[in-house]
Amino acid sequence: MYKKLTEIIEKTNLPLTKLDFIKAFKDLGIKNNSKIEVHASVSSFGYIVNKEYDICDALLETVTEGVIIMMAHTGEFTNPRTWNNPPVPPSWFSIIDSNRRVYDKDLFVPERIGKVA
């Protein structure tokens, strides 16, 4: 972690703030009623004073009446035939398919998502 942060600091001219993100979002044409889908690589921005919180706060302050969606993945609802990390034996496919719970947003926790999402 320390090494990665040091690399980010070395590659950054000036630290970014929430106000920088608000300005950038408005410069991109994002308005209070925009409907946007957000994908972000936090380390790509350089050093951010309050990390991902500045990005999220800026989004919420910019899009006040619109819609912000962020992609997430719930592995339980993918096809077990395509699983490779780790794969499951083919003999398990039908067992998994026929015994899954119905999706419940309060029960299933998204996985493999970034800090902004």
Tell me what you see in this structure.
The protein has 117 residues and is mostly helical. It folds into two domains: 2-70, no CATH class; 72-117, no CATH class. The chain is built from four helices and two strands. Strand 1, helix 3 and strand 2 form a beta-alpha-beta unit. The relative contact order is 0.17.
Give the averaged pLDDT, no decimals.
Answer: 90
Rough outline: flat
Radius of gyration: 19 Å
Low-confidence stretches: none
Detail the topology: elements first, then pairings.
Blueprint: H1 2-10, H2 18-27, E1 35-38, H3 51-62, E2 67-70, H4 93-99
Parallel strand pairs: 1-2
Helix pairs in contact: 2-3
Key features?
117 residues, mainly alpha, two-stranded parallel sheet, 4 helices, 2 strands, 32% helix
Put the structure in a nutshell.
The chain is mainly alpha-helical.
